[in-house]
Specification:
By secondary structure, this protein is of the alpha/beta class. It is built from 11 helices and 20 strands. The strands form 3 sheets. A 9-stranded mixed beta sheet has the order 1-2-3-13-4-14-18-16-17, sandwiched between helices. Strands 8-7-10-5-6-9 form a 6-stranded antiparallel beta sheet. It has a 5-stranded mixed beta sheet with strand order 11-12-20-19-15, with no helix packed on it. It is globular, with a radius of gyration of 22 Å.
Length: 428
């Protein structure tokens, strides 16, 4: 696959993966088109040597794997990422009627950079639970796929210090405007009911609950005088999800390999679908068959934890360690931290570097400044939960956690090639 074809596939994936639920749904379709068979956690599993499977949890986390009966001897080669991104999540009772405008109450999900959310056309997507015909409780994915909201800034004339010391009150300043209403006061529940029924022939009787997120309505783009940059929403961490899903599909391998995509990383990962929950370990235990086999497999296994890295910002170069400031379009980044905020150790770094060297792909290193706090990933959590040796890597990006982030056109493609080789030939 050529780099331009790969990036076109990435843009298509980003466009439909507007929430973790939609990202999982998108990856399911990719897996099914490549011959993966669906498993359900509540069913008994009968795995066939050489077959490929996937299983989801909570509609927002997904694992896919190739099964082999000799996994105890070989171990499992794993790659993981997370499906969620910082966003504005709709509150349970969101309707706010002010001065003829309907606004929607929101909470900040994850560590979002909030300033870029203002004056931007936003759409709305997520998961809705409702009472269907016959009093059944059903769930549907919703995506308005068009601009439906804006968070307008206050004019500079009314806030003369806005460019000097603007602060954002998440409760007061963030509710988006979604419509103007003078006489009638439609609720979001009514709007959701109409939206779902328009596509499902009157299926909804009553909205019961929802998990909805506003998202940037602008499509991702490739830019720069040499078209060397990519900008779009949710690059953290759908870039890594796309590298992982394409890597396992395109490796065409029937050795024991697995990808895991967890929700809730941006909120701490403590949930039934998060990396600090039991999802990955339960899948591995069922693949192995018994705990003795599991412990033997874990000892022979490795994991690549993929999450975006901080590319050095030319306007703020002093915010980075001078010897560890990754450049865009200069290769995937290996992340290290003395206090194990990243799971990388010398052995796992050596494995990754050797695969990259064999593919003639450059690799960079990131270490946070010694006087600054370090973020973390699913890597240390899954390593601690499973006992599997792990490395933390990622694509260098600018504006991490903004509503739109920027990466280089080459780095994700290079990461994909490393993951594909890792799955195809292993890490020995």
């Amino acid at each position: 696959m050529k780099i331009d074809d790969f990036n076109r596939g990435l843009f298509d994936f980003l466009a439909v993966s507007t929430t973790p639920y939609h990202a999982v749904e998108s990856m399911k379709k990719i897996l099914e088109s490549e011959g993966f068979k669906e498993l359900r956690e509540g069913d008994g599993w009968k795995l066939t040597d050489g077959s490929r499977y996937y299983v989801s949890r909570g509609d927002s986390s997904l694992a896919a794997f190739s099964y082999s009966t000799d996994l105890v001897d070989k171990g499992i080669r794993i790659a993981g990422a997370h499906t969620d991104s910082p966003a504005l999540k709709v509150k349970p009772n969101p309707d706010m009627y002010r001065k003829s405008y309907l606004q929607i109450g929101v909470e900040v999900y994850g560590g979002a950079l909030l300033n870029p959310w203002f004056d931007r056309e936003l759409s709305l997507a997520g998961r809705v639970t409702f009472k269907g015909k016959g009093a059944s409780i059903e769930t549907a994915l919703v995506d308005f796929k068009r601009p439906v909201a804006v968070i307008p800034s206050l004019a500079i004339h009314l806030d003369r210090d806005a460019n000097k010391k603007r602060s954002i009150n998440a409760q007061k300043d963030l509710p988006p405007v979604i419509m103007q209403c003078f006489d009638d006061k439609p609720s979001l529940d009514h709007i959701l009911k109409d939206e779902i029924n328009s596509n499902n022939s009157g299926r909804v009787e009553e909205i019961l609950s929802h998990d909805l997120f506003f998202y940037d309505g602008m499509a991702p783009s490739q830019w720069g005088l040499k078209r060397e940059f990519i900008t779009g929403s949710r690059l953290d961490n759908l870039l890594s999800c796309f590298a992982g899903i394409r890597g396992i599909c395109d490796s065409k391998n029937h050795d024991p390999v697995l990808v895991i995509f967890n929700d809730h990383e941006e909120a701490g990962s403590v949930s039934d679908v998060g990396a600090q929950g039991p999802f990955l370990k339960s899948v591995l235990q069922r693949i192995c068959g018994d705990m003795e086999s599991y412990y033997r497999v874990a000892d022979r296994s490795t994991m690549i934890s993929m999450d975006n890295a901080h590319g050095i910002h030319p306007n703020f170069a002093d915010k980075y360690d001078a010897e560890h400031g990754p450049l865009l379009n200069s290769g995937p980044v290996i992340k290290r931290n003395a206090n194990q905020r990243y799971a990388t150790v010398a052995h796992t770094e050596a494995i990754f570097r050797e695969i990259a060297k064999g593919e003639d792909i450059p690799v960079q290193s990131f270490v946070v400044r010694s006087d600054m706090a370090c973020g973390s990933t699913i890597g240390p959590l899954t390593a601690a939960e499973t006992g599997i040796k792990t490395i933390d890597v990622g694509v260098p990006t600018w504006a991490m956690h903004s509503v739109r982030e920027t990466a280089g056109v080459k780095d994700l493609y290079w990461l994909y090639k490393i993951v594909k080789k890792y799955f195809a030939k292993g890490s020995d």
